[in-house]
Structure prediction request, 346 residues.
Amino acid sequence: MVPARTAHAVLVLLAFLAVVLLIDIALPFAISLFIAAVLAGALAPWTKRLATALGGRRGVAAMLFTVAVLAAVVGPLSALVAVVVPQVQSGLTWLRQALQDKTFEELVARVPEVVRPIAQHLQQALPSTLERLQEIATAEGGRAASVLGNLLSATGSFLLKSVLMLIALYFLLRDGPELVDWLNDAIPLKRGQVSELLRDFRRVTVTVLVSTIATGGVQTLLALLGYVIAKVPNPLFFGMVTFVLSLVPALGATVVVLAVGIVMFATGHTGAGIFLAAYGVGVVSMIDNVLKPIFIRGGVPIHGAVIFFALLGGLAAFGPVGFLIGPLSVTFLVAVVRMYRRDYGG
Prediction:
């Protein structure tokens, strides 16, 4: 007869090993699964309504929303690439002509005297740098091929993770209620506590996503106003680029405004370039730090300063996906403490 304490210890050890193996299996695709869970939590109520309208066909509703997510990502990116590629080619042509026509010297002459020595040093170093880059590209074709191979490998990995995210999203949308019931039975918590945590999870994810889109919209409108004031060509195009990049935490709308300001400055519109640079840093960038915590606080009962530092900490620790993980971590802690105090006192 095995002692009860020994059986308990063995069972705990087996459970620990199972958790370690599960984490090791899921870790390579953790970001894909996390994004799928976030989107599934946000789209779950809409999926339920659509499934009811379709006569209870939840699988069809889940497939429609999965295709909609794919179209929402691929469509704008394809349009953006189709428009950006000619712009990039035009920019390279301009750069080549600028170097040939000595306009770089004119650009240096317009630089303020404080930074003119740095610009002159760059002017002197630029031709030799370009020649050196050409020599490296010619002499190290093998290394360039290796870099290209790594780039293709990274692209393939990104596509694989994207496909896995869409597959996980479909199954989470289709089998979400059954999964919640299974978690309520499998996780050793009181009945309903898992559902409560998941409700907090969904509320936070929806709030963060909506706040990101809303803040990006406000930044885009402000940036578009700046483009119109500075008389930037094709302001609507740059407004679209600003909105798309405003949704990317690692980049943001300010990068576009600064880039447009640099281009305006380099093409002889000195006042417009300086205005856009100052406008981007002083207005477009700052509005993100002000509005996003306010929007998030409207849906999450946590102090705005805590949300602000949770966003920054999440981005620093986890990269772009950290803008979701940060607030979720804080909310998860608050929810666990709340349930503990409610159910066990103290």
